[in-house]
């Protein structure tokens, strides 16, 4: 049977405890987009080593070539996220291959927009040095100005832009 | 005292720690319902504010925990990673991500969660993220100048706003409670039949709000750890109740001349005064900096007597009490501070018998000590100053 979602305040409290535990033990917060960056760096270093060694973006991460870019904290953390989310889906009976889209959006269109949205996040997270997890959430927990600025910019833009994206999510056929 | 990286947990073990916390992170995110894009973007359309509730509660919980642990002296808040800010890149990056959120329906962390339970759209989002980073990397030379502009370093938000840390923490908590109330009201009007807030009682809302406000009030008046310890030490020093053993100028001079290895002179005077004249082999530390990890190697050895030198007895006693409060042992203060040492040992004076039996010997000792200390100082100057070991810094961020 599909279980209901956890009470959001309780879930937020647990999420806060996980973040606090991470900060307490390791001195740093949680993240996500950094792992995506490591994957890209590793792929480029593998496919075009000369390019990775000379292009200014990859150079600092490729380093001496002794350690793989994949041997990074965030790559391991995100691997954990995959496992943790899978286990959660398993125990709450939510594992299912499915495309989730707004009522008026066909799967292919949803995929295209998801791909585009992911690409924008990939770009934006480089400028902001982190995404919703690493910059906004973890940054807010340690009271960094950058965390609050990034959070306000993400959600402020989300609200400002929501009207243009309404066709993707709202509609008559809503079955919720 | 946390954090345990890099001193207690090695870089290798830290990767295991990352995996463990990642599992917990992913589990909680999925349980919170963050694996559904329609739920996530609901925050922008008013029909589902789950994201705001979870996100705000998590941020406040973690922030409160950091402040409470820091105040209790269990977490060294100066050692943890504070995201540095590049102001305009952060704003532009946030705007790009905001658009990405609305059209993509996820953020990177939640897309990984959703992909893990089989959401195909989330897998496309993750692939898009890879493409985005790749595109940025290839275009990096073009955007590098902007990307590195307006670098402000790891600034803290309360300092940016010019208010106290506790005041900011309280305001954030109050803002969270207000946002919970307002968004619940909106949600029930936008989606009267399906609002997620209908699934939990009014009591649970009120309870969450009340608990948060209590927490915020605690944070408002919470003194930070350093200020608390410093205040206690300076009160103790002024009262003289918890006195620290003293060492006379003559004894210290004897130890210096004798090259006694088990004495370390800690000079807590201002760097200016220290630069004008200081004792050979002494280190200059501001009392506030005694908390820093870099000094623990100097202060830790129990067989080494730490002699604190100040401008006055009270200044030295404050530092001495603080060193003891921080858990170090074998501390003494130089009686009369640096001026006493300067007057009795370092300044040539004609012999004036005061009637004591050993006056002449004392005079002779002080004359010899003055000459010898000058020689030691000269040799040290020629040898050059030793550079202290560089501390390992914690790396973080995305």
Mind explaining what this structure looks like?
- The complex is a heterodimer of chains A (176) and B (398).
- The longest helix of chain A is centred in the last third of the chain and has 22 residues, at 107-128.
- Chain A contains nine helices and no strands.
- Chain A is mainly α.
- The radius of gyration of chain A is 19 Å and the shape is globular.
- Chain B has 17 helices and seven strands.
- In chain B, the strands form two sheets. A five-stranded parallel β-sheet of chain B has the order 3-7-6-4-5. In chain B, strands 1-2 form a two-stranded antiparallel ribbon.
- In chain B, β6, α15 and β7 form a beta-alpha-beta unit.
- In chain B, α3 runs antiparallel to α9 (165-190).
- The longest helix of chain B is centred in the middle third of the chain and has 26 residues, at 165-190.
- Chain B starts with 10 loop residues before the first helix and ends in a 15-residue tail after the last helix.
- Classes of the chains: A mainly alpha (176), B mainly alpha (398).
- At the A-B interface, α1, α2, α5, α6 and α7 of A face α1, α2, α3, β1 and α4 of B.
List the defining traits of the structure above.
heterodimer; A: 176 residues; mainly alpha; 66% helix; globular; B: 398 residues; five-stranded parallel β-sheet; two-stranded antiparallel ribbon; 7 strands; 60% helix
